[in-house]
Write a structure and sequence with these properties.
Layout lengths: L11 H8 L11 H16 L3 H26 L7 H34 L2 H28 L10 H27 L1 H6 L8 H5 L9 H25 L2
Helix pairs in contact: 2-3, 5-6, 5-9, 6-9
Amino acid sequence: MRDDLQGLEISQEKLQYLTNLPVHDELLIIINPLIKLGKLYIKKIKGSEGATVVFIGFSTFVFSCLLFDIIIKIFVTWITIPSWLLLIILGLWVGGLTQTLLYLIWKKRSKFVKLNMTNSLQILLNDVDRYNSVIRAIDINDQIQEAGNPEVVIKERERVIEALKLTKADLVRALKTERIMRENKSFILSNTELFVNNLATLTAMQVTEQANEHGRLLNEALQIALDVQLEMNRLQSQG
């Protein structure tokens, strides 16, 4: 990823921090890290240091089995099945228990997000997904260009990057606003006279850019701000 794109994408950690919700939280499958580790191990074997990697891996495996066997014979003398079979059974049991706990935690977090989800937040999350998709599309386009295809160069790249920076700032501001509204909904509904509706001011903000990519992004950012203000207006009208 080029330097001008670094830091533009809104990461999942950043999104969860801004919303104070575990949004886009994925269920961790414990077998996936093991698969990645296996692929990395195979890749290392195929490399120039393959023999060393095989020796270290085999030595670690044998040492672990011997250590487990010694522990079983010292502390669990009543077990008669082979230690290697016990190790497999124990590994499957611990793995299954861990996966169950991870699922229950993920289910609880997903339910918490669902209970706190608002229309405005859903709109903002969709806009964040579209924004990140633009970042990834530009990155892929850059890779295609660097592979020897100069005809796919992005015109007015600096203006596009500047528009993305402005869009990110608007998204962050909108997410912060939505969080404040959501976490203080009861107070807002009971004190509507303290909040001034700035929707008219926002509506008066017209984007004069042409209908190109960065102009579209700026208009999208304005729409996000309008969506948040509309949500606040709807909440106030319920008071």
